[in-house]
Each structure stands twice: as C-alpha cells, then as structure tokens.
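User: Some background: our group keeps a shared notebook of sequences we're curious about, and every so often someone picks one and asks for a predicted structure to add to the entry. Today it's my turn. The entry only has the sequence so far, pasted here. Could you supply the structure so I can complete it?
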Amino acid sequence: MSISPISQPINLYSDWKAELSHCVSSIDDLLIQLGLNADDLSATEQAAIDFPIKVPQPFVQLMEYGNPNDPLLKQVLPISSELAIDSNFSTDPVDESNYNPVPGIVHKYHNRVLMIISPNCAINCRYCFRRHFPYDENRQSKQQWLEALDYLKTKPEINEVIYSGGDPLAANDNFLRWLTAEIESISHIKRLRIHSRLPVVIPARIDEPLINWLGHTRLKPTFVLHINHANEISTELSQGVDRLKQAGISVLNQSVLLKGINDSSDQLIALSEKLFDAGIMPYYLHMLDPVQGASHFDIPKGQAVEIFSQIQTELPGFLVPKLVQERAGESAKSLIL
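Assistant: Of course. Here's the predicted structure to add to the notebook entry:
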C-alpha cells in the first residue's frame, strides 16, 4: 500500500477528541491527500450539501494513494450517483420514525431498545441508513435522558440496551459512565451493547476511560464494530480490540454488503480471516438498507446469495456471518441465508 506523503505523519493527534475535530471535511482536501482528481471520480459537492463529507485522518491513512477505486475511499466520497432519486428507496428505510416513543429511544424489537446516544459520527459513510434521521428531534437534555430512563423502567420486557447514534462513542466518557450506571440500576436490564464505527476510523477511542466504565459494569457488555473491508483493520485497531477483550468485553463485527467495495467472496473471506486474526468475531452481513442516496451501492438479492454461498464453502462456520436484511415493520431481522 502506497501512502501519500501529504497524509503523513501517522498519529497526528494522539487524543481521539483532537482526531475528531480534525476530520477531513472537503472533497478537494481528501483527493489532494490521495493524489486524485475529482473529475475522474464523479465527485460532487452537491451530494455533500445535505450529508457532508467527514473522514478522520487515521482512516485516510489506510487508503491507497493514487487509487480511485480504493474500497475505503468509495465508502466516504460524495459522488453524483447520490443525487439520483430511486422510488424503491426512502429517507426512513427501516421505519424508525414509528418506533421513537420518546426522544432518544428507538424501540422496534420486543426485548431490546436502541438509545440514540449522540447525533454525531466520526465518519459520514455514504450508504448510512440514518443519513436522513431527525437527530435534531433526538438531541437530549439531562431531563430528557431521565425521561428516557423512566421509559426503560416501565418496560420489564426490555433486558438489553444498545447504544447507537450517530455514533455513541462520540459522546464523552463521563456522560457514558453516568448513563450506564443509571441503566445498571434497572434490575430487568441484563446486557449492554455498543454499536460503534469510531474505533475503526479513530483507534485512539479505545482508551483507558472507555475501558474503565465499560469493563466495570454489572451489565454484560458486547462491543459491535462496523468494518466492511479487511483494509480497515489497522494494527492500532487490533491493539484496541485486545484491550477490550482483556477487560472481559466481547467484540463482534457487522458489515454491509456494498457494490464495488466488498461484493465478492474473496473480499469477504479476507475480511472474516482478518477479523478473526484481530480477535473480532463476524456477526452480521447486512443487505443494504434502501436509503435514498445510496442506491448505487445496492446488490440484488440473488447475487448476494450466490456470494454468500461461496463464502460458506471456503470458511469454517464460526467465521461465516449471518446474511440478514432489516425490513420495515418486521419484529426481527430477516435471515436471508
């Protein structure tokens, strides 16, 4: 892998908050670092008006210099295809607006809830199913968080809370420690899941304060990363995962099947192998949620099944993620194969 001299030095900011505040926010800046021309990539600022470009430097440094087809670049670069309107795609592809009983809570599934911890992400992935989510309506004051906690207390069927967003780890650790302690006091809640891409794009996020509160909760913690391609797994991420596991925290991965990025059995096999080498267990392989602006990433179900069947012949069962699709109105994810 050849890295642009402009993107060095590596680890420009050792603190994750500093990394987060120095993300690339311009198409031109990103392509200059990679030695690429916007005209050759169909890149357009128009697509970034409603959903801005945002890429942390550690993730840029994993991209191949001079390669317009780099699989990491294609996940974050706004292009003209996003402007196409597809009648089969929507701004709320999994119908979350009908399962938002109080601000900050998404309760679609019987025994578990999502808490929208932070409206912010470290990276704006162009296929994100929440790229149109009304985060402004789910920004929480302390009083509103207490109301969300009251909602959990009145639902004894809930035994698992999932921190989501945005990215939940964009919130500061003092808040996360407080919220987790409040949830611990609700006796019927047993498990805590963290769904985050932030440690993938800024590995420094797995730091001592995070380990301290997450590794010392009575709740059974599980960390679910979001990694789509083997090239996203850096040495620094592997070291962070090792710290999580030493603290007794299970680490899983979920991916999205994306056209032009990981739509071959070879790429997905390489991903599962590298995940396992890093101490991460493959969990879900999602079909793309039909969110408006991302139709160019979509893969037909038949092709997905064919790719997945090839994976099954090459990998042991414990390295094969579940191929799933989330459908609006369904009480659980649908298992494709």
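Suggested note for the entry: Residues 1-13 have pLDDT under 50 and may be disordered. Residues 96-335 form a domain with the TIM Barrel fold (CATH 3.20.20.70).
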